[in-house]
Fold this protein.
Amino acid sequence: MSLAQFSPDLMARTAPLYERVRSVIPSIEWPAFAGDIDAILELKKSRDAVILAHNYQTPEIFHCVADIVGDSLALAREAMKTDAAVILLAGVHFMAETAKLLNPSKRVLIPDLRAGCSLAESITAADVRALRQRHPGVPIVTYVNTSAAVKAESDICCTSGNARKIVESLGVPKVIMLPDEYLAQNLARETGVEIITWAGHCEVHERFSARDVRQLRDGHPGLVVLAHPECPPEVVAEADFAGSTAAMIDYVGRERPRRVALMTECSMSDNVAVQHPEIEFVRPCNLCPHMKRITLPGIRHALATMQHEVTIDPAVAAPARRAVERMLEA
């Protein structure tokens, strides 16, 4: 949208929304977002739609059009509570599939079918079946960052926020945990449970190194470093705290460090900074190319055209749903 199209009426309607994000979005950039935001808010009403946005979405999505925000666990839980007829997932494809699994009668949309995940793409249902044959009787715990087909071959799902709780709830000395190798290694160190891993990695978190953490500390005295458990174990060992995106947000709000670095996807820092303008966020910026495929124009087009609808084969959906529901019940 050009400045000429940024009318006084549009300015007035979107001014309260801009106040939310003015600390992270320069005023000169707001006209590029305002028209789409205004249209999306109207489309949500006419479509009886709700937007779920992951913590890695950009601030103009996260703070201005989303109805429910959070990590994978929060989105999974909240998806079941909505009365809306349409769920639009501002995130990646496995998240939209999970929303559909938990809301089979609702229409679930994802704005861009190319919004995938390196973890989800690292393993197939056939891989899981082969692992079960090699390790008979060992429970399979599958990260939600996987396809519905992989979930269907699993015993129970987990997120980074509840992985320890899920593994310990099984009460067994050994589990198979898929597909994130680093999450599994970090969890094995915490729990003492023997974990058979899979060599899947998040293309964002695997790029962080222990050297990065040390260099950040050298350049920013007093820095508090928070790491996502998808980071390599040596990064987690160097950090002051490790946890899911929700746990990191809680830590910042509770401890209020003067200066903090979040070792995760960099839009997260922008979103948390909106709530804590008094905190200095040092941004080691690794972008997720898949999350960044979700844009305001894409969301607007998805609601206008009701595309792209997420569907799951019923033969796959039933066992996959059981694995997710077991996670939520644990």
User: Anything to note?
Assistant: The chain has three domains: 3-115+291-305, 120-202, 205-282. The CA atoms of residues 125 and 149 lie 6 Å apart.
